[in-house]
Structure formats: structure tokens, C-alpha cells
């Protein structure tokens, strides 16, 4: 049955096309069949990526938003479909990523009856999304969807949830879209810029911290060139290492979990901290211990697109509301008339020393493997991860050299990395995408291997298998030491090589540091030649629980 041309479902899809959306990540549901039917007519403009779990679909949409700067679009059915997808919404909120989740909904006429899979989406997503709404007047479809785009993209970017009652999707959808949404971007107040310039001239130990979303390559490079010209130490916020090339001679490292003690000392001692886009939340401020309120009131310049983030935790010396890229470009017009070469060179030397491989006890040295990964892949390769202690090795020993090459959830979401790598290949099939995943982390969304195979996408995943939920095991050993106290953290894993092969993917096993380069190259070659995803099953020891930490060492403390 062909639906009329002017239905709400068709207007929704027309609005996606008008706004440049070329991918939709979904798990299909009968509650939004009309939208799927409308998507069938625009196959040449929008690729529908069919996923195996709503969490995978939502994570892919979030990764798409990070990579493209456009809202990642996810479509799921009502009830359990929506709640499964909520993890992606939470990540998009914490990571300031533009995203729109469309949820099929019960008929408007059945609302409030406790109908099959009925959920109040405004209530469920009200605290997770920037805006959660439900289509109630079909003739306003374009208005609601355009507002979703504007809300996701303006200010501090984030997710929007739109529920779609299935009966309204067949109704007259009202006027068609006229033009794409062009989000408003605030630039930095000239008076604020002048004040920052005066403070910078007087600073002896300045530090720039970059974070947040929406950075353009132009702004990233311009800020990096300017900071390098004046040799101002510059650092990334938690899981934002790719905003500035780590090869810059003034790059100081990233403020995250397991941070370089010398970088935290530098941040504490700074007499001017210019934070652009970073929210300065729990992880980058080391559990809110990096600064104190009296200190930030005299040194912190906080520039952020969301005014609600300014003064939220830390009193500031100067606050400015501005788009991250426009704020960065504005700063490059400042001429402090001096440089901080000694500070910058020492900061970079500290970073290089901290990101140099360290010894371990087991047969696989993850620090050396991650250093080799950096040397082996192109500078523009997208490297992804979820959450777990395995990521500490990646973040510490892999140096990012290009913009938009890190997909890592600041929300600390397990299971994120593999769907993110699949999304990266969907966005650009010619660009390498490498996921580093823990064994517990990977199997939370590992079924999306089927999605990658089905759609001809060929990322590579390195599954770091130490047979434990590593982060929890580390804390468990620290707080309740002793082998007899270990509970709920041991894992019995499959043979991941056979598991990958069962999907039609490629798999290779690796048990030593020396064998890792060949295993990685074999996987990359197979992915390219066969156009299938590839998996490296890397067997590691739980004893080497984190860089510089062992389980036996934790037990002896």
C-alpha cells in the first residue's frame, strides 16, 4: 500500500533530507512503519543502517554526530526499544553531541490507558535529553522536527527525543520544509576577548584546556598554530585528545582518568587557565580536586557555548558565551607580545615521557601494543573505545595526530566503541576505523558484528581479553583485597576468533607483544581485501590491571 505524498511520515523524512541527513540508524518497529515506508522512497539519499540492538543503533547515531557535526538520527520502536536506546541519549547528553532519537509511539487515542508498551517519553527522557517531546498535531510535523534540529545544534549541543504516535503518521503532515535549519552561533564578546588578552600578557604560567563538541578543523588548526607560535601549553579535556594534534611541541597531554601527575601539578600551579568548550566536570578535574573555588575565581577564563555551564561549579575570573570554534578563532587575534617557551617545552617533554611504554608482568605489554597501533595506522584513522581499564592503555600511549580521530564516551559507557567504529566506516568507507575494546565492554554490543557484515562495513576491533571486568576488579582489589573476596568480576569468554568467523568476519588470536604487529596487520589486510570486519583476540593478564598497577600490588597496599 502506497501512502499519500503529504503524510506526517513523509514530511518527517523530507525534513531529514532537507537537513543533509544521509544515514539513519535503526531497529525497525511496527509503530513507525509509515516512516520506514517513506524512507524507502529516498534510498538514494538516506542509507538506513539496520542494527541488532537499540543500544547499538543509538551509539552509532551518537558517533555520527561527533564525526559530522550534524545530528545523528536514530529510530526505534516504543517501550523497550526506546529504553534500550536511552544509553545513547545519555552519552550524547554527557558528551554534548547533536542527536535526534525518533521513537514510535502508541496511537494518540490510546494514550493514558496503559496500552501495550506505553511510555511517557517526556517523563522518561526529560532528564537525559535537551528536549523530549511528542508529536500531537500532525500538521506541525516539520515545525517539530526543525525545532529538534535547532535544539540539538544550538548552544551546548545535545540529544532530542521525539515520540511519534503511529496514528498521526498517516495524517496530513502540513506544509513541507522550505530550507535546512541553520543553527545560531554566538561569537565571543569583544570586551571579553580584550580582557582575556590583557590577562594573558601578565600571565607567567598559562594553560589552555580544550574540550566539548562542534569543533571545526579550521578552528582546531588555527588555535593550535596560534598557541604554538606563542608556545602556550595546551591540553585536552577528558577524551578530547584529538582536538589538538599531540605532536605539537606545546601539547601537554589530557586531563582525564589516570592523568599525568605532572600535568595535574601544572594545572594546579597555572596563574591563568583558559578553558574552551570543556565543562570542567568530575573526570578532568580529578574528582573536583584539581582546583578550588578561591583559586579559579582568580585564574579561570571559561568560554563555553552553554551559559548554564558557566559558574556551575567553579567561580570564574572571566566568563564568555561563545561557540567553541568561534571562541578559538577569536583568541587567535590576540597578540600577547611574548611566549612561554620554557613552560611549553617542559610540558611537552612531560607528556612524551608519560606516553612512553612502561614495563608489565605479563606476555602482552598493552603500552607497547598501543604505541605500535599509533605507528601502524594512518594519522586520520578513527580510533574508538568504550569503557574499562583497557582504555587507560589506549588513552595514555596512543597519540592523536588529526581532528575527529577519537570516538570515546565521556559518559563512561561500556559497549560504545564497537558501534562507534561501525558508524565511522558508514560515514567514510575509505577511512580506517579501529576499535579497542575490553572483553566485558565488547560483548555489550558485540552483536553489531552482524550489522557491519550486512552493510559491508569493515572496521577492525582489538578485543583485549583479561577475563575480568577490569575497572571494577581494580577497585574491588583496592577496597576489599584478597583472592577470596573476588566476586562478580570474573568472566568466562568465548573463543572470539571463532565467534567473529561465525558472523562471516575475520579473526586472529594474539598472545604476546611480539606477535601483535603481525596480528594487527593481518586483520587490517583481511578487512581491506575481503571488505568484512576483522577482530584481533588479544589475550592479556589481569595481573597488569592498569598502567603502573598490578593486582598483587593492590592486595599488598
Helix and strand topology:
Blueprint: H1 8-18, E1 23-26, H2 33-40, E2 47-50, H3 54-68, E3 72-76, H4 80-95, E4 99-105, H5 121-125, E5 131-134, H6 141-153, E6 159-165, H7 190-202, E7 206-210, H8 217-229, E8 234-236, E9 251-254, H9 261-269, E10 272-276, H10 293-299, E11 300-304, E12 318-321, H11 324-331, H12 341-354, H13 366-376, E13 382-385, H14 390-397, E14 406-407, H15 417-427, E15 433-438, H16 439-442, H17 449-454, E16 460-465, H18 470-479, H19 496-502, E17 506-510, H20 516-530, E18 534-539, H21 551-556
Parallel strand pairs: 1-2, 1-3, 3-4, 4-6, 5-6, 7-8, 7-10, 8-9, 10-11, 11-12, 13-14, 13-15, 15-16, 16-18, 17-18
Walkthrough of the structure:
The strands form three sheets. A six-stranded parallel sheet has the order 2-1-3-4-6-5, sandwiched between helices. It has a six-stranded parallel sheet with strand order 9-8-7-10-11-12, with helices on both faces. The chain has helices spanning 8-18, 33-40, 54-68, 80-95, 121-125, 141-153, 190-202, 217-229, 261-269, 293-299, 324-331, 341-354, 366-376, 390-397, 417-427, 439-442, 449-454, 470-479, 496-502, 516-530, 551-556, and strands spanning 23-26, 47-50, 72-76, 99-105, 131-134, 159-165, 206-210, 234-236, 251-254, 272-276, 300-304, 318-321, 382-385, 406-407, 433-438, 460-465, 506-510, 534-539. The termini are far apart. The mean pLDDT is 96. With 557 residues, it is an alpha/beta fold.
